[in-house]
Amino acid sequence: MSSRAGLAGDFEKLMSDATHLADENAGLRRLNAQMLGVLQYVLPILQEGLPATVDFDWTKEAVEKVQNAIADAERDP
């Protein structure tokens, strides 16, 4: 059987780990928001601003990837 001191130490470590995880999650959410802003900024350029000499299939694929990334980021609360 674990001692009270051991259980208290385990609980403190668990709380510390949970706080650390929450901080990392907040940082990732900030990064996600920044990436979403960049994708929203770039999408019109991909859709309309590229010259006709660019490979149409590649451009279409790039637009789809950016649109999917935006949709994924917007679903993440």
Write the layout of secondary structure elements.
Layout: H1 4-49, H2 56-75
Labels describing this entry:
single chain; 77 residues; mainly alpha; 2 helices; 86% helix
Separate helix tally: 2
Instruction: Label the overall shape.
Output: rod-shaped
What is the averaged pLDDT score?
83
Alpha-carbon Rg, integer: 22 Å
Counting structural domains, the number is 1
Distance between the termini: 42 Å
Main sheet: strands, sense, barrel: none
The oligomeric state of the chains shown is: single chain
Which residues sit in consecutive blocks of at least 5 with pLDDT less than 50?
Answer: none
Order of helices and strands: HH
Bin the strand percentage.
under 5%
Task: Give the strand tally.
Answer: 0
